[in-house]
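Dig into my protein:

:::
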Amino acid sequence: MKIERLSQDRIRIFLTFDDLLERGIQKDDMWREPPKLHELFLEMMEQAYTELGFDASGPLAVEVLAMPAQGMVIIVTRGKSNNAGDERSREEDELEDDIYDMEVTMEQSDVVMYAFRDFEDVISVSKQLIASRLTESGRLYSYNGRWILAIEPSQVDASKQQAVIALLAEYGEAISVTYAMLEEYGKVIMPEEAVRQVYNHFHF
């Protein structure tokens, strides 16, 4: 589980499927097992408080984005509380109470996104994808000092999708951002056929 602060009142949490399985949550449970998700949310808020000092009291807007290839991204935004001045001790027994006033929105995205620290890794994975005849598609972004390759599953044969993910994972790491974040805070380098373009420009 990775937690990062986006602003004073907003955090982002990235859970891989291994994180979920460790907690007894299957991929499909994200949509149909509220009690399990409630326990998971309590754990996440405890960790956010411990690591970042993020106090999740008051109204919360919770955006959940499920990405079947990578895991689950949760963005928690804290609203204004009427009791903002109250000091709240975080005893274990308090965590059993329904202390969160949440508005939850859930989305699902099949887009495969991987981040690469060096452009050489983007070149290497593109060569491998082309050589293995897996895909020539994808969008390439620059974001937070890294290169992000986003591939739509609709542009990859279903029988080849796991092979594509396995190759991407060899050179990069799954990243917990959405297209909206990339468009707003990143830079589009190659809007289409990124794998083919990288291969054509750097194949020597």
About this structure: The mean pLDDT is 81. The chain has two domains: 2-108, 112-202.
